[in-house]
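Notes, p. 3: input format for complexes.
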Amino acid sequence: MVDNMPKESAKTHRHPRVAVVWSVLSAEIERFAAGRGATMRILDVGGGSGGFAVPLAELGHDVTVVEPSADALASLRRRAADAGVTDRVTAVQADADELPDVAEPGSADLVLCHSVLEMVDYPDIALDALAKVCAPGGAVSVLVANRIAAVLAKALSGQFTTALDLLHHVDGVAEGRDTIKRRFETATLTALVGGSGLVTEQVHGVGVVGDLIQNPETAGGEALREFELATASRVPFRDMATNIHLLARKPMR
Ligand SMILES: C[S@@+](CC[C@H](N)C(=O)[O-])C[C@H]1O[C@@H](n2cnc3c(N)ncnc32)[C@H](O)[C@@H]1O
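Output follows (253 residues plus S-adenosylmethionine):
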């Protein structure tokens, strides 16, 4: 894995929670630089306040954030200004369903959709839209909540009824008690992504144990980061992580 973190945000992005995702994105950036150039056109769908968008702009890329929340976009603009990258960050208020209206087909070299497919009405339609805006040969980075991790977390805290609800529910949620519409599993996510014509290249677990241990910082931040990086692609660790990260490519034709 490549260790190419944004300078100003290096500390934040070495955090065990996001280290695996940054490692995959950094490798994709290097791949692009080797073949096509230094500046990527990046589209961050549901990009929130720019936790990924701003560091990517800091690395010199042109990032468009498509985000329905006005508050999140206001924070994004402040964050971009603080980082001195206002000219490389474009904020668009829209949700994933409106993507075809706000982004040209094939206009992004890298499309991010992190922690959003859990919330949309139709993840298959959202993925079709992500695939459409991605340029041929470009990549789509998807991060989603993992049902298996949620079941384990509830069981380990003694909440077996909720654990079984999550295990058996068709969408992996506790009906009426969950803030999200669905959770995924590695196989279902990969199938869904494939249905949009994208080819899955990498699957990683994000947060294999980070959310299960008390006080992960005091437990040893750097050691935990190393552990997460080492286990992220190893089954069965990968498939029990809090989140699943998938990098898929749009075929050239
Ligand atoms: C958990 S946050 C993740 C933010 C960012 N992607 C990140 O990883 O830091 C989820 C974001 O998805 C946005 N969102 C919710 N529903 C959405 C939809 N239907 N289409 C696009 N974004 C949506 C929310 O406003 C929020 O900013």
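Residues 111 and 130 are 7 Å apart (CA to CA).
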